[in-house]
């Protein structure tokens, strides 16, 4: 394993989550986030993240570590990691997309948005409302009118499941 | 990409200051600013359905900057996976026009197209921002704008201008998109022959201008022989044309319509074909003009040229030698080419892997009647567009359609 002397030479950062947990990571891992990179360039080594909760931060650190070690040979391994990473509930994905946006990690942001889009594209409006916790603010007449105007989009069967 | 960044910035601002119902119990309020990022990745059909999720979503899906971001995503997807290859052909027996959507690996779906199926000719120009323009050559009659993803269309009335006998040889139709004004423009060029002493008569129709067609004065003399523009790149139409050169006489040139300046511009051709003896196909290569040039013989090489705005034409590579094809029908955005095989059927060919990807054998369709292009899905709508209805009873439809089309003909 890596020797202790080597570890000492690496620059480290401390990230603090919204629920006050602290995580030590290598600077080279952290700077994949534009937000962290800007702070590091200004000389910070302690980074408070008031918009990112511990649960999401642990997953995101995992992601950053994996992607920091990207080489030509572990392409498949990273693909598998990414697939597992997004295989979670909608609420978790929303939490992650919120964190990825705050941290400005564009590749993660794109992957999460694409995952959510792929998972909702065949769903019914009712299922989408439940997934996004949206209350319908149309009157039944208004909704009927919109459905009629877009009748072709309602042809066929839709996925009613919430996962 | 500047356009994308701009769109996102705007959306974020809106999302943060959204005027949601205060009683709306959304626990994940933080995610609301990212809704546009997610929705802009969806197919048109899903988005039309999700308009009835809530008012906020409906408003978002109709906003011009959202429509633009969505089209940028759907165009990027098109480059990756050819999700929307459209084939225009004619039925073997009836000769009716058919427009089909090809789905990989080998199925076809006939699209409900708004053009009267029984007219003798139909040409398609586009897409510009996801909109196709159907019309009847050679005089550009029955101009019909069509959004195939949204299944909506409208016809456009012509001006009173008529071609002048022995002066105008054809009307060439071009489509342009002005992203600054979010406006679709139709160009109708009354083309003169190469011995003409008068310039082309050009008319332009801005779809935001309810008043109709405007004449566009131009000092440039160029000669077009095709009834459509040859490519549309970033909303700008390009034509393969001829110009009169004081030194060399008649020679080939590229003409484009600068949407910002509202004027035509003449560009050179690649050096290689200055003599005009080769076949050529103008293509959209990653939002730059590209040209495929080949000699009309078996076992020939196809040379691929790319135009850089600053450095001009550069030869990128050569493909081939290719055997058993008669012509190049299309060049897709991902670099695949569609050639017409010796049997008249289109073949999709990957020039890098040097392999055949698909054969577009549409049952019951005329050989050699194919026209192939790509049209990424778009949410762009033009005022007055209505849902396309597929005709039911043939005879009555024909009569009704003829009556309806009457005002859209040149008389």
UniProtKB/TrEMBL annotation, chain A:
Keywords: Ubl conjugation pathway
Keyword Translocase: no
Keyword Ribosomal protein: no
Pathway: Protein modification; protein ubiquitination
Domain annotation SKP1 component dimerisation: ranges: 108-153
SMART domains xref list: Skp1
Pfam families reported for this sequence: Skp1, Skp1_POZ
Domain called SKP1 component POZ: residue spans: 11-69
Superkingdom in the source lineage: Eukaryota
SUPFAM superfamilies: POZ domain, Skp1 dimerisation domain-like
Family: Belongs to the SKP1 family.
Assembly description: Part of a SCF (SKP1-cullin-F-box) protein ligase complex.
Purpose: Involved in ubiquitination and subsequent proteasomal degradation of target proteins. Together with CUL1, RBX1 and a F-box protein, it forms a SCF E3 ubiquitin ligase complex. The functional specificity of this complex depends on the type of F-box protein. In the SCF complex, it serves as an adapter that links the F-box protein to CUL1.
PANTHER family: SKP1
Name assigned to this protein: SKP1-like protein
Provenance organism: Datura stramonium (Jimsonweed)
Automatic annotation (TrEMBL), chain B:
Stretches with biased composition (Basic residues): 1-14
Region (Disordered) location: 1-24
Domain F-box: 32-70
Pfam families reported in the protein's UniProt record: F-box, FBA_1
InterPro entries in the cross-refs: F-box-assoc_dom_typ1, F-box-assoc_interact_dom, F-box-like_dom_sf, F-box_dom, SCF_F-box_component
Protein name, UniProt field: F-box domain-containing protein
């Amino acid at each position: 394993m890596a020797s202790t002397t080597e570890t000492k030479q690496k620059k480290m950062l401390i990230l603090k989550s919204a629920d006050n947990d602290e995580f030590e990571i290598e600077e080279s891992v952290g700077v994949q986030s534009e937000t962290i990179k800007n702070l590091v360039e200004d000389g910070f080594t302690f980074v408070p993240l008031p918009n990112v909760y511990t649960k999401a931060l642990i997953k995101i650190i995992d992601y950053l570590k994996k992607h920091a070690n990207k080489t030509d040979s572990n392409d498949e391994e990273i693909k598998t990691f990414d697939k597992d990473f997004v295989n979670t509930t909608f609420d978790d994905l929303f939490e992650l997309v919120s964190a990825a946006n705050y941290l400005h990690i564009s590749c993660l942001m794109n992957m999460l948005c694409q995952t959510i889009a792929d998972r909702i594209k065949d769903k019914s409006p009712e299922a989408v409302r439940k997934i996004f916790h949206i209350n319908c603010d149309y009157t039944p007449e208004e909704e009927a009118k919109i459905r009629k105007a877009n009748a072709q989009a309602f042809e066929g069967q839709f996925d009613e499941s919430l996962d | 990409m500047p356009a994308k960044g701009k769109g996102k910035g705007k959306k974020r601002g809106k999302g943060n200051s959204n005027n949601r119902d205060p009683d709306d119990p959304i626990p994940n309020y933080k995610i609301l600013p990212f809704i546009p990022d997610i929705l802009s990745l969806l197919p048109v059909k899903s988005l039309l359905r999700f308009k009835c999720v809530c008012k906020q979503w409906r408003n978002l899906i109709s906003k011009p900057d959202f429509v633009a971001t969505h089209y940028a995503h759907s165009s990027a997807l098109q480059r990756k996976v050819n999700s929307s290859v459209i084939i225009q052909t004619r039925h073997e027996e009836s000769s009716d026009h058919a427009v089909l959507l090809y789905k990989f690996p080998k199925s076809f779906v006939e699209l409900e197209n708004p053009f009267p199926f029984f007219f003798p000719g139909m040409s398609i120009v586009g897409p510009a921002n996801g909109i196709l323009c159907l019309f009847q050559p050679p005089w550009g009659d029955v101009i019909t704008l069509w959004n195939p993803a949204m299944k909506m269309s409208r016809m456009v009335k012509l001006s009173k201008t008529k071609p002048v006998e022995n002066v105008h040889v054809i009307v060439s139709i071009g489509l342009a998109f002005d992203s600054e004004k979010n406006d679709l423009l139709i160009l109708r060029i009354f083309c003169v022959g190469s011995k003409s002493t008068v310039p082309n008569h050009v008319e332009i129709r801005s779809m935001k201008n309810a008043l109709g067609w405007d004449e566009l004065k131009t000092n440039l003399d160029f000669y077009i022989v095709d009834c459509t523009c040859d490519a549309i790149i970033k909303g700008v139409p390009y034509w393969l044309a001829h110009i009169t050169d004081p030194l060399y006489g008649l020679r080939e040139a590229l003409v484009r319509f600068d949407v910002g300046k509202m004027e035509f511009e003449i560009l050179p051709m690649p050096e290689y074909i200055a003599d005009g003896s080769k076949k050529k196909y103008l293509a959209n290569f990653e939002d730059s003009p590209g040209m495929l040039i080949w000699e009309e013989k078996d076992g020939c090489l196809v040379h691929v040229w790319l135009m850089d705005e600053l450095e001009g034409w550069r030869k990128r590579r050569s493909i081939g030698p290719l055997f058993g094809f008669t012509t190049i029908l299309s060049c897709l955005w991902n670099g695949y080419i569609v050639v017409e095989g010796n049997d008249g059927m289109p073949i999709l060919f990957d020039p890098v892997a040097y392999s055949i990807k698909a054969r577009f054998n549409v049952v019951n369709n005329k050989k050699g009647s194919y026209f192939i292009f790509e049209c990424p899905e778009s949410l762009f709508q033009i005022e007055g567009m209505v849902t396309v209805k597929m005709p039911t009873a043939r005879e009555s439809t024909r009569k009704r359609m003829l009556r309806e089309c009457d005002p859209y003909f040149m008389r």
